[in-house]
TrEMBL record:
InterPro entries: Flavin_Rdtase-like_dom, Flavoredoxin, Split_barrel_FMN-bd. Residues 11-144 form the Flavin reductase like domain. The keyword Acetylation does not apply. It comes from Prevotella illustrans. Belongs to the flavoredoxin family. Keywords: Flavoprotein. Its cofactor is FMN. The keyword Iron-sulfur does not apply. This is Flavin reductase.
């Protein structure tokens, strides 16, 4: 095996689009990949010092959408362009903005699934960023992406993952097994 030392290569990494309103009520978004489940109703996002981070200080409510193959270009764009320098950033994405149902934050309708979140805690806050712990207040899913059981079907969403090794996006694949079931074959 080849050794690579310490790298932030926990795979796969979701491509998340954080949606928030600025102080004037304008929708803003940023791309974030370093995130995960914190608890049953909590998520954690590692955030650098961005305009979105400043907006979170003032607002507290935000949304998290899951990027797809279809939203890839605009999702990458909101990660490399700051609204501070490009005020028409969201207009350039072509995304449709509607208000979230449970929090005061924007929902971008082009994404199949969006979590409505509220800031609960910030850890290790510094000039370079923080770890944000957020409560998931509600989850919205476009009905076109529901499975036969009425729950979201991620295999229909064309979700993408960030490849931190080669700095690219990879589309998530097919179902290959059944969790809490397939391992029983080794009992």
């Amino acid at each position: 095996m080849k050794s690579f030392g310490t790298k932030p290569w926990l795979l796969p990494q979701p491509v998340l689009i954080i949606g928030i309103y600025d102080k004037d009520g304008n929708p803003n978004a940023m791309n974030a990949a370093w995130a995960g489940t914190w608890d049953r109703d909590r998520i954690m996002i590692s955030l650098g010092a961005h305009q979105t981070t400043k907006n979170l200080e003032e607002k507290g409510d935000f949304t998290v959408a899951f990027a797809t193959k279809e939203t890839l270009t605009a999702s990458d764009f909101v990660g490399i362009v700051s609204m501070k320098n490009n005020p028409d950033k969201i207009k350039k994405t072509g995304w449709t903005v509607v208000p979230a149902e449970q929090v005061k934050a924007p929902v971008f309708t082009e994404f199949p699934m969006t979590m409505e979140c509220r800031v609960k805690e910030k850890l290790d806050e510094s000039a370079t960023g923080c770890y944000l712990i957020a409560e998931v207040v509600n989850i919205l899913c476009d009905e076109a992406y529901l499975a036969e059981d009425g729950k979201p079907d991620m295999t229909r969403m064309n979700l993408i993952s960030f490849d931190p090794i080669h700095l690219r996006y990879v589309q998530m694949g097919d179902v290959v097994g059944k969790a809490f079931s397939d391992g029983k074959a080794l009992k």
